[in-house]
């Protein structure tokens, strides 16, 4: 509202004329009520309108590269993009092969996954810096599902790679363990696609299969893209940093445990079910006598090389133009040593095996697996999206640009949809590679295309050279890259000092993810976070306020010195919304701080009336009644008005409005006026809709915007029983 209108509405002359008992009033704007049918019609028309401008805008929003590529500053940015893309590509070669092991896949599929994800995110992503590809936590989740489905299909363990299971696969003939493993991973990753339709199927059959496909699209991991269409990218805000950090740390412990068997050269099946971490360690201790000395020595040597060199990279990253790819050097050296030393033939070491060149023909998922993996796919979708959005927003804030969470959901969804046709598994952003990408001069996602070119060279030419690479070397690479997550344990004291609730969320999520079940850890973390937020509203207390001199400043008397309480007026503040879950606690805290519980006082008076009727002696009865009915007056002879500061009350529900009604009614019967002050517009609307204001009962619809006005108005009221003017 313009200042002139406010001044016309309430002038200084009016204030002087009417006195201090009249509050300063603001003229409310009249809100136009638009029928919901018109609102719906307008929104549907806007979304469904079709024009050349609409199509162009939709295309640009859906494929962001169309918008930023024409403005690409080639001379200034190409060197940084090329350098960062090449370095990330070099780092991805050993990591893609290693994390395939974690996902229960052959090494070639890890290279496929990193290749396709780099290209697709370049086209669809809005972040300039994040690196999308293989992420350890998601590989762990995929590996758990794959191992479970392999067991259900009749495949024994990874020690027998050629045994056939009873697999009903409509996309091809019965396949071996490796084939079925990638089929499960691709089905898990695939969210939307076309059901396999033969060229000679009749149209009605095609229509039937297409309708089945639509049901599958809604049901599974394609929920990522569906949520993007519905513009619900805001869900990422409900996954706090402490929750994600605890989940990642707990999953890292599980990853570390799963790799110990490769470090020792043991052939043990992956443990499924709750408590898998503890069961795995028990199995490891039972089989220590079967340790392969060649794999153990190789693991120790690789750890002795990689741990200090990675620390050197971290320590001198500010001075180095690019991190030194020690992982690649170790992989090359270990492959040469294994090949010429014939470790597989002589010592029985487990090696990567044949890695084919080129690309395999695309295939559709196995639809019969969908009922088994639907729940797992949902949790993987949420984790992948949350990690990607968190990293993209973090680096966007650091470099001063904006990212669109809904478009990120689109991008990461299609990074899973399209590659699943080409035998890939789930991807998301990865912190380690993103940090490398940023530190080596990345400017745009053109660096992702350079990374894809480096991986393409490996896929077409170099991949078979890693045949003799020992799996224990790949396990060492995975373990070394867990250092960042495991270091979080050293931050627990600091987290506890900063915020104990966040520390508790971190500990519970981490412990559940590691000791019980990885997916359950995420759910438990979300529930604990929700209960912590709810608990804060439950633990809110009413505080009595005092005024700082003549200033418009009221604060908690228990927290600050020099504050003055008001004669005949008590001012209190409740620092939480008032709703169904805490309305009883609000009344209890208010009555306790005021020092007078109206219900107890009325019960006491009824008891005294009953005792009076039972007494026979008139003088004794009169004396006792005088003493007992004056209990309240002796304790509260100066309290006639109660002002409640509602500024921290964000909202009221029906139970909250009823609670305020009861407070006003109960105190009214004791001759105490209840005044509400500094309510926001939402609270005022709730009070009006809930029937709080009732002039017949003396509850007037008057709004107070300052506590000083409320106190002045309260002092001007007559202290009469039943006079309960209530202001807002």
TrEMBL record:
Keywords: Membrane, Transmembrane, Transmembrane helix. InterPro entries: S04_transporter_CS (IPR018045), SLC26A/SulP_dom (IPR011547), SLC26A/SulP_fam (IPR001902), STAS_dom (IPR002645), STAS_dom_sf (IPR036513). It comes from the Eukaryota. Residues 610-623 have a biased composition (Basic and acidic residues). It is found in: Membrane. Residues 602-623 are annotated as: Disordered. Residues 559-714 form the STAS domain. Pfam families: STAS, Sulfate_transp. PROSITE patterns: SLC26A, STAS. The chain crosses the membrane at residues 77-102, 129-146, 180-201, 213-239, 320-340, 369-389, 410-432, 452-482, 503-531. CDD domains: STAS_SulP_like_sulfate_transporter. GO terms for cellular component: membrane. It is a multi-pass membrane protein. One of its GO terms (molecular function) is secondary active sulfate transmembrane transporter activity. This is Solute carrier family 26 member 2.
């Amino acid at each position: 509202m313009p200042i002139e209108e406010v001044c016309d509405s309430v002038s200084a002359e009016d204030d002087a004329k009417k006195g201090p008992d009249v509050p300063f009033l603001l003229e409310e704007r009249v809100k136009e009520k638009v029928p919901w049918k018109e609102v719906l019609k307008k929104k549907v028309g806007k979304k469904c309108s079709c024009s050349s401008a609409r199509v162009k805008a939709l295309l640009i929003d859906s494929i962001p590269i169309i918008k930023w590529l024409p403005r690409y500053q080639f001379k200034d940015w190409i060197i940084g993009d090329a350098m960062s893309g090449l370095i990330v590509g070099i780092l991805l070669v050993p990591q893609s092969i290693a994390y395939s092991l974690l996902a229960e896949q052959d090494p070639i599929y890890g290279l496929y996954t990193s290749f396709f994800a780099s290209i697709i995110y370049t086209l669809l992503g809005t972040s300039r810096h994040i690196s999308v590809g293989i992420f350890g936590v998601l590989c762990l989740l995929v590996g758990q599902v794959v191992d479970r489905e392999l067991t259900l299909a009749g495949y024994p363990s990874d020690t027998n790679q050629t045994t056939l299971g009873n697999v009903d696969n409509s996309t091809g003939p019965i396949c071996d363990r490796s084939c079925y493993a990638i089929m499960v991973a691709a089905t898990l990753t695939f969210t939307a696609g076309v059901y396999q339709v033969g060229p000679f199927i009749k149209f009605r059959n095609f229509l039937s299969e297409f309708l089945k496909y639509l049901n599958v699209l809604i049901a599974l991991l394609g929920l990522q893209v569906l949520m993007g269409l519905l513009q619900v990218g805001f869900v990422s805000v409900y996954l706090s940093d402490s929750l994600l950090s605890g989940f990642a740390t707990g999953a890292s412990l599980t990853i570390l445990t799963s790799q110990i068997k490769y470090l020792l050269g043991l052939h043990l099946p992956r443990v499924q079910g709750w408590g898998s971490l503890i069961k795995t360690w028990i199995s490891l201790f039972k089989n220590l006598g079967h340790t392969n000395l060649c794999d153990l020595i190789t693991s120790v040597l690789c750890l002795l090389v990689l741990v200090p060199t990675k620390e050197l990279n971290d320590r001198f990253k500010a001075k180095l133009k690019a991190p030194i790819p020690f992982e690649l050097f170790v992989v090359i050296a270990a492959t040469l040593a294994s090949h010429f030393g014939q470790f597989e033939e002589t010592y029985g070491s487990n090696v990567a095996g044949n890695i084919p060149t080129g690309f395999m023909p695309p295939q559709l998922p196995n639809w019969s697996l969908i009922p088994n993996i639907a729940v797992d796919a949902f949790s993987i979708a949420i984790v992948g999206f949350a990690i990607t959005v968190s990293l993209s927003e973090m680096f966007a804030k650091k470099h001063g640009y904006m990212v669109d969470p809904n478009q990120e959901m689109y991008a990461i969804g299609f990074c899973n949809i399209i590659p699943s046709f080409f035998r890939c598994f789930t991807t998301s952003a990865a912190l380690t590679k993103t940090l490398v990408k940023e530190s080596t001069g990345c400017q745009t996602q053109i660096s992702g295309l350079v990374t894809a070119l480096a991986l393409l060279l490996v896929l077409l030419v170099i991949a078979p050279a890693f045949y003799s690479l020992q799996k224990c070397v790949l396990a060492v690479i995975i373990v070394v890259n867990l250092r960042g997550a495991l270091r979080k344990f050293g931050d627990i004291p600091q987290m506890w000092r900063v915020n104990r609730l966040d520390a508790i969320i971190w500990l519970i999520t981490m412990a559940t993810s590691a000791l019980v079940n990885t997916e359950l850890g995420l759910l438990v973390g979300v529930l604990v976070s929700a209960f912590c937020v709810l608990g804060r509203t439950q633990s809110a207390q009413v505080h009595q306020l005092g005024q700082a001199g003549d200033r418009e400043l009221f604060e908690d008397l228990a927290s600050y010195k020099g504050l003055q309480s008001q004669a005949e007026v008590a001012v209190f503040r409740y620092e939480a919304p008032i709703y169904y879950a805490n309305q009883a606690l609000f009344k209890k805290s208010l009555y306790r701080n005021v020092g007078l519980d109206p219900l107890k006082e009325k019960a006491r008076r009824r008891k005294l009336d009953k005792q009076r009727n039972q007494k026979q002696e008139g003088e004794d009865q009169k004396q006792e009644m005088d003493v007992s009915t004056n209990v309240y007056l002796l304790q509260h002879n100066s309290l006639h008005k109660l002002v409640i500061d509602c500024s921290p009350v964000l909202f009221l529900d029906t139970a909250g409005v009823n609670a305020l009604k009861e407070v006003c009614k109960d105190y009214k019967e004791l001759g105490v006026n209840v005044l509400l002050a500094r309510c926001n517009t939402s609270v005022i609307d709730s009070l009006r809709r809930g029937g709080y204001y009732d002039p017949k009962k003396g509850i007037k619809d008057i709004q107070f915007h300052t506590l000083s006005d409320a106190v002045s108005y309260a002092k001007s009221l007559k202290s009469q029983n039943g006079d309960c003017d209530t202001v807002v």
